[in-house]
């Protein structure tokens, strides 16, 4: 329901997508979480936490290679 509201309102801030994605990841809604986190990354400015959250998602989905790459990317963004 929240995802539909975000899309229908034309939200243009990456943090909204990041927070929605992180909430869905924690709830175990992996597909929605991935979609929201990838959308957050599509913005020019986004939090390095978005990479980490996506890394945790891929870790949870037993994809360590993608997870490690995203954790490294998160660390690079913090510099």
Classify the secondary structure makeup into a structural class: mainly alpha
- Element order, helices and strands? HHHHH
- Count of individual helical segments: 5
Mean of all residue-level pLDDT scores: 90
Coarse shape: flat
Residue runs with pLDDT of under 50 for 5 or more positions: none
Largest sheet: none
SS strand fraction: under 5%
Instruction: Give me the Rg, rounded.
Output: 12 Å
Number of strands: 0
Q: Specify the helix fraction band.
A: over 70%
Distance between the termini: 36 Å
Supply the key terms.
79 residues, mainly alpha, 77% helix
Explain this structure to me?
The chain is built from 5 helices and no strands. It is mainly alpha-helical and 79 residues long. Helix 2 runs parallel beside helix 4 (48-60) and helix 4 (48-60) packs antiparallel against helix 5. The longest helix has 14 residues, at 14-27. The radius of gyration is 12 Å and the shape is flat. The N and C termini lie far apart (36 Å).
